[in-house]
Amino acid sequence: MTDVPYQPHYRQIEQALRERVAAMQPGERVPSDTELCAEFGVSRMTARNAMQRLAEDGLVSRQPGRGSFVAAAPPHRRANRLMTFTREMARLGRVPSSRVLTRVIRSSGEAEATRLGIPRGQPIVELRRLRLADDEPIAIETAILIGECADAVMTADLAHGSLHEILAAAGFVLRRGAGTIDAAAATAEDARLLALRAGDPLLVERRVIEDGQGRRIEATESRYAAARYGLAVQFDVEGPNRGPVETAPRAPGADR
Q: What sign does the CA torsion over 26, 54, 233, 241 have?
């Protein structure tokens, strides 16, 4: 008998709300915290946590004194928050899917070991996928994961499922990360997989993601067709007579 992984109540409510919101139009009202408490038999804090996660992902707009409403889908993902590709495309009303190009367990090289903070030669999982939306190729994603993830990753349906949801179900809860964003020209292989011309512009995002204990779980490179994908950026403006605004560093989150 296969054990079904336990999900906290707020995550169960969150998933139910995501499915409900996906079928609604921008501006439609979604249930209040009080209504969610009655519907799901949970506390107000649990209901609020579920709704807050949708607000953080830009799916709903919470308006004090009025309630919560389905938000219009923004055209781009925020650069300071990592959302799973599956969730991101669904939020935009597109059908996400993937084509697995490589899925293998092998020994880590020096650069991979450094990124994951493990000794060189330790087992890792390499997962390389072509990410699509409405069957249009959007990105080539190469994820390197620590060897402990092998049991979950090697048997999972990664053509339609979310890698991060699969990892979470296996007990790997990703919490925070850091990354870089660069521009690059499409190689011949990029062009073939993404239906581009060699030399066309790419947006390349590299990131390392940790769990709640600070252990590095995943190092990933995503190569996006620049004409099909963008990132929204928020920033402070440095004035001529003052130094930069001091803010706490904000690293990308981990719901991929």
A: positive
Alpha-carbon span 225 to 108, nearest angstrom: 28
Closest CA relative to residue 52, chosen from 16, 14, 26: 14
**Chain segment 30-59, per-residue pLDDT in tens:** 999 899 999 999 899 988 888 888 887 777
Residue 66: which CATH number?
Answer: 1.10.10.10
Pairing of strands 77-78, 231-232: parallel
Q: Is the pLDDT of residue 252 over 80?
A: no
Q: Are residues 43 and 126 in the same domain?
A: no
Strand partners, 78: 232
| Domain assignment of residue 97, yes or no | yes
Given CA atoms 114, 116, 118, 120 in this order, what sign does their dihedral have? Answer: negative
In this predicted structure, what is the pLDDT of residue 5? 47
Residues 179 and 92 in one domain: yes
> Pick from 100, 84, 230, 79: which is nearest to 166 by CA?
84
Contact 139, 229 (CB under 8 A): yes
Shared-domain flag, residues 81 and 17: no
Q: How many domains does the chain have?
A: 2
Is pLDDT at 246 greater than 70 in this prediction? no
The pLDDT assigned to 2 comes to 39
Whether 66 and 82 map to the same domain: the answer is no
132-187 pLDDT, tens digit per residue, is 999 999 999 999 999 999 999 999 999 888 898 899 889 998 888 999 999 999 99
What letter represents residue 145's amino acid? L
Tokens linked to 56: 């953080």
d(CA 37, CA 34): 5
